Amino acid sequence: MRFPIPQDELNRLKDSIGPQTSKHKAFILGNGLWSNLELVKALNWLDAILEVILAKNPKRDWHGLFVTPNAAGKEKPDEWIVSQGNKALMLFEEAIGIEAAKRGIEHLGTWNMSIQSNKYDGVHLDMKGNLVKGMMVLNWLNML
Fold it and tell me: Which listed site, 34, 46, 68, 97, has its alpha carbon 20 to 30 Å from 105?
């Protein structure tokens, strides 16, 4: 993930969406730490993706979910605490939830569910935590 998104990546996305059909479509988007949690960078990326989705599905008969990063572990290196630490993650998660709603997509914040979980290396969520996130996404899909 990066912005600006290379045109070949946007073309692959466009090709993978396919034509508008009567079936329900869901787009699950995620934001890692590539943007250092800078809201403008993340929103520019999101808007570029949504532009491609809307071009292929202009009736807006699809659902979108934006998943934000989980909490930082206690072993997060000090040089990343300001830009990617828990306070930055909480503020980003709150802001992106507001902005996602403005764009008509839902938001799944994972900071709260992951703050007290074990991090296999003191930084990254382990398989159990990622399975919980996966279950949350499946539950969201089930509600559509």
Answer: 34
